[in-house]
Amino acid sequence: MKRILVIEDNQSLRKDIIEMLGFEGYKTTGAENGIVGVQRAREFLPDLIICDIMMPGMDGFGVLDELRKDADLATVPFIFLTARTERSDSRYGMELGADDYLTKPFMAAELLATVNTRLEKRAQFDRVTERRMEDLRGNIILALPHELRTPLNVILGFSDLLMTDASLMDGVRISDMARHINSAGMRLYRLIENFLTYAQTELLVNDPAKREALQHGFLIYPTMSIENHARSKAQIIERAEDLSFALEDVEAIGISEEYLKKIVEELVDN
Q: Could you tell me the pTM of the whole model?
C-alpha cells in the first residue's frame, strides 16, 4: 500500500484530501504545517508528498528544501498545492525540485490523476534504477576477478619466493622483488579505486542532491591542476622526461578537482 503525506494548514481541505486518497486505497497521514510536516515525513517515510505552499512557520518551499537534503526523502515525489494567484510561486517550486503542482480549487479526479501519474513515474524510475544496479553488479562480477588476478599473482609469487629463498638472495635481488610487489600492489589499489569510481558514477542516478552538486561544480584555472596531477603521476611511473603539455588556457571547467585528477591520471598512465 502506497503511503502519502498531506501537509496543509487548512484543516477541512487536509481532511478532504486524506479521505479521497483513503477511498482509493492509499495509506495517508496529515500535518498541519511545514515544521510538523518535515518531522512526520521522516517518521512516516511516504511514497509521495502533497504540500501547500503558503503556510505559517515554514512554507512549502522550506519543506521541500529540508526534505531534498534528507537522503531517505530526497527522491520522494513532491506535489505543491497552490492558489491561482500563486502560480509563479509554483513554477519556482518546480525549479527547486518539486515534481508537480495542483491549483486550488481542484476536482477529486484531478488530484487522483496527478497522484497516480507521479507514483507511476516513480515506479518507472525505480525499475530503471534496478536494471542499472543489475548491470553494475554484472559488470563487476565479470570484470573484477580477471582484473585482480594479474597483480595478485605477482604479489603472491614474489612474496612466496621471499619467504622461502630470501636467505639465498643478495640485497639487489630482494630490493627488485620488493619493487615488483609494490608496483603490483599500487596497480591493485588503482583497480579498486577505479571500480569504486565507476560504481559511484553509476549510482548518481539515485542521488539527486549529489548529482545536482556535481552538475553545478566547477574548477577555476584548471591548467595548473592538470599539469600538477600529470607531473605527479609521470614521476610515479618514472616517465617524467616523456611528459609534454599543449593545453588551452581556460578560466574554469565544469568538473570537480577529484574527477579531474582521476581523468588526468588515467590519461598519463595509458
A: 0.59
